[in-house]
Design goal:
By secondary structure, the protein is mainly α. The chain is built from 5 helices and 2 strands. It has a two-stranded antiparallel sheet. Helix 1 runs parallel beside helix 4 and helix 3 packs antiparallel against helix 4. The longest helix has 34 residues. This is Sodium:proton antiporter.
């Protein structure tokens, strides 16, 4: 490991892969629980009575989005096991990072759509739309805006 000017360490490939897989493991249980709740919701009588056909299709779309997120987030572990279980490459770390990050927008959209539907059942379209839009803004800022801002600041800093 090497320490750079900011006091951060440059990780070995093995350590970077360990962190990446651990990050996937941290995200996955919550995503899988959400997926289970989404599947169970369709068996609830209120789901059938209170949602329009179009809203039921929105829910199906949200389930599909979360399913895609699960597939993308789980792929690094499967990829590693099937391609090179005895070693770690820079290619593995790069592709796995991209897969995990590609899964996050799918997860975000699935959560936002289902939040809209729950809000619609509780208080109508306007409140549901506002809450869903606010949630989308929060996810976008925290998952993408904040890290991209930090990366831009880091790359724009002059060496000390």
């Amino acid at each position: 490991m090497h320490e750079n000017l900011e006091g951060a360490e440059t990780l070995s490939l093995a350590k970077a892969a360990d962190y990446l897989i651990e990050e996937c493991r941290m995200v996955l249980p919550g995503v899988q629980a959400l997926f289970g709740f989404q599947l169970v919701a369709v068996f609830n009588q209120r789901f059938d009575d209170a949602l329009t056909h179009g809203e039921k299709l929105v829910h199906l779309g949200a389930i599909a989005l979360v399913g895609v997120a699960i597939a993308l987030i789980m792929t690094p572990a499967a990829y590693h096991r099937l391609t090179a279980p005895d070693r770690v490459t820079g290619h593995f770390v790069r592709i796995s990072t991209r897969l995990m990050m590609l899964g996050m927008p799918f997860l975000m959209l699935g959560l936002v759509l289902d939040t809209y539907l729950v809000g619609r059942l509780i208080d109508g379209h306007v409140v549901a739309g506002v809450v869903a839009a606010a949630l989308m803004a929060v996810f976008s800022m925290l998952w993408f805006g904040l890290p991209l801002l930090a990366r831009a600041r880091r790359s724009g800093e002059a060496p000390r």
